[in-house]
Design a protein that fits this description.
Peptide Methionine Sulfoxide Reductase, Chain A, alpha+beta, 258 residues
Length: 258
């Protein structure tokens, strides 16, 4: 028979179960779990240099010219080089370089004429050194020319027409080894051309041609006041008495403008 005590325990049992059950362990919905797992942790500070990833490597490769583009660039450079004038140099001595320069600088195809000294033993000689006749140098001009316009043979033609190649170490009143007739060739082709040309024009002269034919050596530019001497000093005595008549005889402009 159920006593009053037993009845009270039966009534209190459900309440005890609720109070002793602890935290609710009911599993949370899936979307709530995902939102929790997606919470980012604070970034950790690192001293290491960032490494290039594959995408960066691809970007760099895209900036580089392709093989086809490289070929086009090379072809364009080669074409530009082919179109640029291919200049050559001739070094000639025919007495006083003031005369030689005044003649050759008027020729079409001649890009530049520079007076100077070559063929001697003294380094960096001065005009005073040359005039002593003891250095072995010759007064010469270095002629830069475009062979597509004027040939080396044509230069030699004007060279021989503008001086006497049969007088040894002398041109008119200018006497000394520094005034010798000389061709300083810059290539085997120039040497052979000069040899053949001298043979061709020898009969034009009553005496043997004594023009020196030697390989080009160090060229020393003359002092600034020697450059373009006739252009800058047309009223000077030597220009009036020697150069002007020479140019007139050759049918050239005896008063070239600067």
């Amino acid at each position: 028979m159920m006593t009053a005590k037993h009845l009270i325990l039966l009534l209190l049992l459900p309440l005890c179960a609720l109070s002793c059950g602890g935290t609710d362990h009911t599993e949370k919905p899936e979307h709530e779990q995902q939102s929790i797992s997606n919470i980012k942790k604070p970034l950790e500070t690192s001293t290491e240099e960032p490494k290039d990833d594959a995408s960066n490597a691809v970007d760099r490769d895209q900036d580089r010219p392709t093989k086809t583009e490289k070929n086009k660039m090379t072809d364009a450079a080669d074409k530009q080089a082919d179109q640029a004038p291919q200049h050559e140099v001739a070094t000639l001595g025919s007495g006083c370089f003031w005369c030689t320069e005044a003649v050759l600088e008027q020729l079409e195809g001649v890009v530049d004429v520079e007076s100077g000294y070559t063929g001697g033993e003294l380094d960096d000689p001065t005009y005073k050194d040359i005039c002593s006749g003891s250095t072995g140098h010759a007064e010469v001009v270095k002629v830069t020319f475009d062979p597509a316009v004027i040939s080396y043979e044509s230069l030699l033609d004007w060279f021989f027409r503008s001086h006497d190649p049969t007088t040894l170490n002398r041109q008119g009143a200018d006497v000394g080894t520094q005034y010798r007739s000389a061709i300083f060739f810059h290539s085997k082709e120039q040497q052979l051309t000069a040899i053949d040309f001298i043979k061709q024009v020898q009969n034009n002269w009553g005496s043997p041609i004594v023009t020196e034919l030697t390989p080009a050596v160090k060229f020393w530019p003359a002092e600034a006041y020697h450059q373009d001497y006739f252009r800058n000093n047309q009223n000077q005595g030597y220009c009036q008495v020697v150069i002007k008549p020479k140019l007139a005889k050759l049918g050239m402009d005896d008063a070239p403008k600067k």
